[in-house]
Amino acid sequence: MIVLGSTSEVAQAFVEKALQEGEKFERIYLFTSNKETTERFARHIDVKFLQQSEVIELDLMKEIDYNKFDYINSNVLFCAVGYLGEGTEEGLYDNKNTERIININYSKLIPVMNYFAHKFENRRSGTIIGLSSVAGDRGRQSNFIYGSAKAAFTAYLSGLRNYLFSKKVHVLTVKPGFMATKMTEGLPLNPKLTATPKQAAACIYKAFKKQKNVAYVLPVWSIIMMIIRNIPEFIFKKLKL
């Protein structure tokens, strides 16, 4: 299995869930921008599950030498790359903040996704799982830069699913709502609408095994976002969401 964004609590919880369920991986490739933290997780799954892994440093903000990844073959790709950024008004007009949100969540990520998607296509098998966000379902004033990047990523996954279907490769889009992770620490999240990484992992694993196309981590979010998507624009623009 290939894991992009392997410092993510959701990514790590999914890896553990898959191993607990008896999934067998010759090797797990843990791509990360924080090698030290990821190496601790690699040691953890080695001790707990006797699972071999390899930690690979990947910084999306730097030039990537794809030749280094030629040897990597896998049947599952799990992408949990994400960067929330600063959502305040000051952050909105901070171009460095804006560029980082767009680059990490979309523009610098897609070439990496495409590189591995091509390998899956050539092998004509496998599953690609991408963590997008409910924030991409409709632009809202509270986080529309992040939401726009996730909307682009959702559209990318949808098109990739359509393209790879005839090549026997499945693409699953996951849309978490509020998540209790380091990225959202300190935010005033409604506990009834917030999932833990373990809850998310269980939902994603179930969707993975059922080969679902789109999965909301908590079912209530599919209802919430359906309502939000269908609010008429002349009303929606006046709301503070």
Automatic annotation (TrEMBL):
On whether Transmembrane helix is a keyword of this UniProt record, the answer is: yes
Give the range the annotation lists for the signal sequence: none
One of the record's GO molecular function terms: oxidoreductase activity
Q: Does the keyword Transmembrane helix apply?
A: yes
Instruction: Give the InterPro entries listed for this entry.
Output: NAD(P)-bd_dom_sf, SDR_fam
Question: Membrane-spanning regions, if any?
Answer: 214-231
Q: Which Pfam families match?
A: adh_short
The coiled-coil regions, if any, are none
Entry keyword set: Membrane, Oxidoreductase, Transmembrane, Transmembrane helix
What Gene3D superfamilies would the database entry show? Answer: NAD(P)-binding Rossmann-like Domain
Q: Which family does it belong to?
A: Belongs to the short-chain dehydrogenases/reductases (SDR) family.
Q: What is this protein called?
A: 3-oxoacyl-ACP reductase
What organism, scientifically named, is this protein from?
A: Chryseobacterium pennae
